[in-house]
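User: Could you walk me through two proteins back to back? I'd like the raw sequence and the structure tokens for each, with a short line separating them so I can tell where one ends and the next begins.

Assistant: Of course. Protein one, sequence then structure:
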Amino acid sequence: MLRLTTSASTSASRIIAGPSVRRCLATAVPTNPASPSTDTTAAPPRRKRFEKLDDGLTFDDFVSGQELPDANERVVLGNTTQPRLPSFLKHPIPTGASYSNIKKELRGLGLHTVCEEAKCPNIGECWGGGKGNATATIMLMGDQCTRGCRFCSVKTARAPPPLDVHEPENTAEAISRWGLGYIVLTSVDRDDLVDGGAAHIASTISKIKQKAPKILVEALTPDFANKGVDTIHTVASSGLDVFAHNVETVERCTPFVRDRRAGFNQSLRVLEEAKMGAKNAGKEILTKSSIMLGVGEREDEIHETLRRLRQSDVDVVTFGQYMRPTKKHMKVDRYVQPEEFAKWKEVAEGMGFLYVASGPLVRSSYKAGEFFIENVLKKRRAAAAEQAAANLSTQSPESTSTASVASA
């Protein structure tokens, strides 16, 4: 049983018996005894208030009664330093049955696309086509990159999750269902892996070719920095048709645009080694690279970049406008007009590139470019088959029989 001590009971009795205290809200007594309603100097004259309206200020500015700052001291809200987005860069929000079906199918197989991760403006156009026309660039090895390029919106992590061993099979299964003639694969950089993910990419390409032998495969690859040239050769000789690796920008801007582990000369060596690795394996491939405009490059630097790409035997080049994914990424230096893109297309074609796609909304995996490359590769293969048949028919019976005995 709880008992109160004498002091405690006395305190309790005082609390109970003491006078009650009532609390209420109160207004502080003004120091000036004069009533606010009778003070004619409390607010500025009505005319001065309306004069402030002519200065283009807000409602709060002219009713506050405070002194206004000088024009050169006022804070201007909104982004006035960045150029406004031109109308030719605005795209409608992607919708439609084909778009929804592709998205649902990719989610069901646990696949990622660079279309979504990089916030590509052409996603509605590419995913919105009918069966056989819709395209999606599948991003291998997860959605977390070990690099942190200042233009890219793909998530960054020092230690991404382990590779999905079922991804090559799931990717090949999804692509075979679409019934496409051309597919683009890309991937994040995985510097944490011993081979940079080269074997994983090569396995995906091989499985696609097994399930759909007629499909043409383009792979937009990492640079496999410090992993050895064998990693590049592994991908280049895996059966792909187009080996793509982007220099992204001119050499001077590279340290400010790309991750510091990526280099301009390093990217050129990747493209050169890809051609060499495919040739050593008895395969013929096209090499491809892309350049972003609007990051601070100069005209002479673009000319030099094109010259060095041709020197590295690159077949295809694309030009596109850099568009800032979020406010955390680097700012747009300028928005390039369509006329300038047309000029660079003409310049690049004059330098001997097989195909050039150039426009504000052109990206590395560009639908129109893929169709052109598909036709080029098919014509080349048809010509090679005709040449092989002609060579076989011109062989003498003695050489044919000798070859048959040797093969037996």
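----
Protein two, same layout:
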Amino acid sequence: MTEVDGVDGTWSDESEFAAFDARAAEEVAAEEEQQAQPVLAVVGRPNVGKSTLVNRILGRREAVVQDVPGVTRDRVAYDAQWSGRRFTMVDTGGWEPGATGLQGAVAAQAEFAMTTADAVLLVVDATVGATATDEAVVRVLRRSKRPVLLAANKVDDQRLLADTAALWSLGLGEPHPVSGLHGRGSGDLLDAVIAALPEAPREGERAVGPRRVALVGKPNVGKSSLLNKLAGEERAVVDSVAGTTVDPVDSLVELDGELWRFVDTAGLRRKVQTASGAEYYASLRTKTAIDAAEVAIVLLDASEPLSEQDLRVVSMVVDAGRALVLAFNKWDLVDDERRHQLAKEIDRGLVRVPWAERVNVSALTGRAVRKLAPTLRTALASWDQRVPTGQLNGWLSELIAATPPPVRGGKQPKVLFATQAGIRPPTLVLFATGFLEAGYRRFIERRFRERFGFTGSPVRINVRVREKKPRAAKKSR
């Protein structure tokens, strides 16, 4: 993202054209650098404090922490930095070799993170010592042919330091005493991590996390039912009573041969500002889930008229700058008359998002749910798309020559330069001699989409207006 995201401004010198273009090029380089970061997988048995240690290393509270085992279930990738080196850190669920059921799935995620990582950090509870599970994990790690570092966590004071010596028995070398809670020893551990990580990841083996999908909509529209249908099992509690889901529910779902992270959210009844009690916190968490997602599926009840709540949810996704897919649920309940009526409602109510792809599904019968994966990929590809500056300006010059901006205040503004200053969402910056009306911006966006696509992604168009230079004072005679 750039600082111009969603904000208009002014310019005074043509050198700013090159500055914006250079900034866009730097963003491309940063994206490529981020994709090429070495990967550290953080593994260990349940409740040894992996997520607490991850938060300490990141310097911020990212991973969910609770004093019970099994809170983390999926592998989650975070960007980390130490001593000028950037790397990707993958937090995993508690690893118990030979586990079955849900715990087996969690272990499988941890094993996948390990096999795609460049180095592995095994976290052990120093207050408990090496357990049979720890020893089993070590046997698997030895076969991985990856550098393995041993972190003796929960060494919160000097008295526990001596207990770490017993961990030499695991055969992984020196145990690094740390306290994820207080930060003790984390710097020394990170020095060892940087030394163990290669400069670049192994080619073709990157632990890239699954794309994040927020499943949003008003209450009782069928979000949890759709999630369960996609997952092929009961991941979320479903009831005909509206408001069954309160907290966002994360689930890794394999769809069309690809792993996705779906977040089922509470239904949004009203604006966050006017909600109260549990409803307020549910709305707040839903907004946070949208902000943390890359693409949102807005689920709409095809059997009922589009409501103000539906439109508010769509607006929330667009305002957050996230890619968007519209899914009309309960299609099995829609007859021919309702389909005709729905088409009119869509044309009238969803005029703001004509670029969003629509899928007619039934969470109950499973109708067309597999069509969601291709539409998600299309939306995300658009969200990541960038148009080169030369190509963008060549197209825009032809467009403006054919249809110039409307005259404003007796003067016709000219667009002198344009660049795509950002992605996620795609953001265009137009340098003009005067203000461009909202209607003309929408015209540019519409033609831009016709030429370059961007199906499923919002496109923001910002205008920088040239500052008027103060007139020089007349010289006195």
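The chain has three domains: 9-31+386-466, 37-196, 211-383.

Let me know if you want the two compared in more detail.
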